[in-house]
Specification:
This is Molybdate ABC transporter, ATPase subunit. Keywords: ATP-binding, Cell inner membrane, Cell membrane, Membrane, Molybdenum, Nucleotide-binding, Translocase, Transport. InterPro entries: AAA+_ATPase (IPR003593), ABC_transporter-like_ATP-bd (IPR003439), ABC_transporter-like_CS (IPR017871), Mo/tungstate-bd_C_term_dom (IPR008995), ModC_ABC_ATP-bd (IPR011868), Molybdenum_import_ModC (IPR050334), Mop_domain (IPR004606), P-loop_NTPase (IPR027417). One of its GO terms (cellular component) is membrane. This protein is of the alpha+beta class and 351 residues long. It folds into two domains: 222 residues, Rossmann fold (3-Layer(aba) Sandwich), CATH 3.40.50; 117 residues, Beta Barrel (OB fold (Dihydrolipoamide Acetyltransferase, E2P)). It is built from nine helices and 22 strands. The strands form five sheets. The chain has a six-stranded mixed β-sheet with strand order 7-8-9-3-10-11, with helices on both faces. Strands 2-1-4-5-6 form a five-stranded antiparallel β-sheet, with helices on one face. A five-stranded antiparallel β-sheet has the order 17-21-18-19-20. Helix 3 packs parallel to helix 5. The protein is globular, with a radius of gyration of 23 Å. Bound molecules: adenosine-5'-triphosphate. The site of adenosine-5'-triphosphate has 12 residues, from helix 1.
Length: 351
């Protein structure tokens, strides 16, 4: 997917001015509240008209003031999933799902309803009214309805913000799998760094109505480390554990991590805050933390007053965070050997 936007839109005192091109299948748009994310989504989808400029999707002009082009939202074939599911309350799940599909031109109907219904596990809900669904079920139906419109681009405007953490991490695999299975590129909008790490390959950072930078999820997490209450979030996809003295022993490359967080359930994705890792210059004796990893420092980075220490342990990479004076006192440089202590309770299960 190639998207080119050179457009301006004034809303009250707020001016969105964007001139950027982005290519890829999983693009994130990250910005604080009021930075203009939704305005940008509305311009791309055609729900709002720029005051001036042009928008191209895969070389097709969607909007141009100079050429006098303004394709309607239907003709753009861009679907949106919003923060609130916004289903038709008087229609069943089935009728909601098929709404976009029936309006889609026959030659564009590449995605079969039964395939999508199976993928999103919606079969048991089909005859239900949408008012009787949980928040997560509603969002799955909204996603299904958007995808069955057979869009060439999916816009997800904070689709997880209204859900609690448990539901959020249940929905993410669905968002990713529909995009992969049906080869639909997406723009994923959020102010959550964790969601950017989980959903995007490339990120446009919006600040006060303009694109401040184009970056990667890792770089974004590094830049925000000092200001994020959880620091840099290490994400660990771990294979099945075995029980070991009341804890779960998860293989992590050639390491083993002892984790106390609950029974495994299918996939195991954990977050580990950079602030929950304590570094030692020498092997410590008799410590209570259940994990002690011998590491090599691969690089250091700065994030305001904090230092991120990128560590390699048996080929696995993670980031620990220390204050600048600690980096100086311990004389930590690239190539140093360190020991990282992590409590078994510091890992938070995400899915
Ligand atoms: N119709 C409008 N009239 C006046 N100002 C508006 C209008 N719509 C949006 N704005 C202003 O434009 C700015 C950007 O709004 P927008 O909804 O795009 O931000 P956002 O980044 O999506 O925020 P959030 O994360 O809170 O949803 C805000 O300051 C908002 O108050």
């Amino acid at each position: 997917m190639n998207l080119l936007i050179d457009a301006e839109k004034k809303q009250g005192d707020f001016l969105l001015r964007v001139n950027t091109g982005v290519s890829g299948e999983r693009i994130g748009i990250f910005g604080q509240s009021g930075s203009g994310k939704s305005t940008l989504v509305h311009l791309i989808s055609g729900l709002l008209q720029p005051d001036r400029g042009e928008i191209f999707l895969n070389d097709e002009c969607l909007f141009s003031t100079t050429k006098g082009i303004n394709l309607s939202p239907e003709r753009r074939r861009i679907a949106i999933v919003f923060q609130q599911a916004m289903l038709f309350p008087h229609l069943s799940v089935k009728a909601n799902l098929l709404y976009g599909y029936r309006r889609c031109r026959t030659e564009n109907r590449h995605i079969k309803p039964e395939t999508l219904i199976a993928l999103l596990k919606l079969q048991p809900l089909m005859q239900r009214g949408v008012n009787n669904l949980s928040g997560g079920e509603k969002q799955r139906v909204a996603l299904g309805r958007a995808v069955l419109a057979n869009p060439r681009l999916l816009l997800m405007d904070e689709p997880l913000s209204a859900l609690d953490d448990t539901l959020r991490f249940q929905i993410i695999p669905y968002l990713k799998s529909v995009s992969e299975e049906f080869a639909i590129p997406y723009l994923f909008i959020s102010h959550s760094i964790l969601e950017m790490q989980l959903m995007a390959d490339r990120i446009l950072v919006l600040k006060k109505g303009s694109i401040a930078e184009t970056t990667t999820p890792d770089q974004l997490a590094r830049n925000c480390m000092a200001h994020n209450p959880k620091g840099y979030l290490n994400l660990l996809h771990l294979a099945d554990p075995v029980l070991h003295k009341g804890l779960y022993a998860y293989p992590w490359g050639h390491n083993t991590l002892l984790i106390s967080d609950g029974e495994p359930s299918g996939t195991s994705l954990f977050e580990l805050s950079s602030r929950d890792i304590i570094l030692f210059k020498q092997h410590p004796e008799a410590i209570s933390a259940r994990n002690l990893l011998k590491c090599t420092v691969s690089e250091l980075f700065r994030s305001d007053g904090r230092v991120g220490v990128v560590l390699l342990s048996n080929g696995e990479k993670f980031v620990a965070e220390i204050v600048r004076s600690a980096a100086e006192d311990l004389n930590i440089t690239a190539g140093s050997t360190l020991f990282a202590a992590i409590k078994a309770s510091s890992f938070r299960r995400l899915g």
